Amino acid sequence: MTIRKGEPWGHHGALPDDGVVVRSDAEARAVVRAAHGEGRTVPPLGLLGGDLCRTLGGLGDLGRLRSEAAMTFPVDLVHVEVDGRPDVVVAHLVARRRWWRGRAVVVMNAQWLGEWDLGPRSHPDDGLVDVTDGRLSATDRWTARRRARTGSHLPHPGLRTARTAALSLDFSPALDIRLDGVLVGRAHHVDVRVEPDALTVVV
């Protein structure tokens, strides 16, 4: 059930025997894609690293994952179509050119993208993604990179933000698309849809 403001979220509990330990968002995405490709239920994911892990307060401690001190959370899964090709995201989608020149879009299920707090309002179980879309001058990009460490790059007149359960994005020219840090190619069109409570993760 999607989290609501003021309600408790998650519970103590160790990673079950059928759980899969992953050390990055890319590894988590790969496990989800493999399960979907084989028609299996996605197993619980024990997070030892990555931006979703950091968002949930994970410590990267394997021993904790196997103990009752671990925390188990339901989280959303983001379904995407990249020029019609289906895929998934657990933490974030980024569409941009090199050096963030021109238009750039980030779609956040997690709060963090590496060292940057690009989803300061994002919650991985609210049924929504946080979207920032826009373009910045070279000077503003330098300033935004510094401020993004604390999430204070927003608001900015050159950036539009939204919180939504679904969206479609068109790019002309095509932009490089990164899903959970993995470059999957260039695309002119991306569709995004949130599936609430689709994953169980343990930190």
Summed up:
By secondary structure, the chain is an alpha+beta fold.
Structural class: alpha+beta
> What multimeric state do the chains show?
single chain
Query: What share of residues is helical?
Result: 10-25%
How much strand content do the residues show? 35-45%
Mean pLDDT: 90
Helix and strand sequence? EEHEHHEEEEEHEEE
Outline the low-pLDDT stretches.
none
Number of DSSP strand runs: 11
Total of DSSP H or I helical runs spanning 4+ residues: 4
Based on CA inertia axes, which overall geometry fits? globular
Distance between the termini: 19 Å
Main sheet summary: 11 strands, mixed
What's the Cα radius of gyration? 17 Å
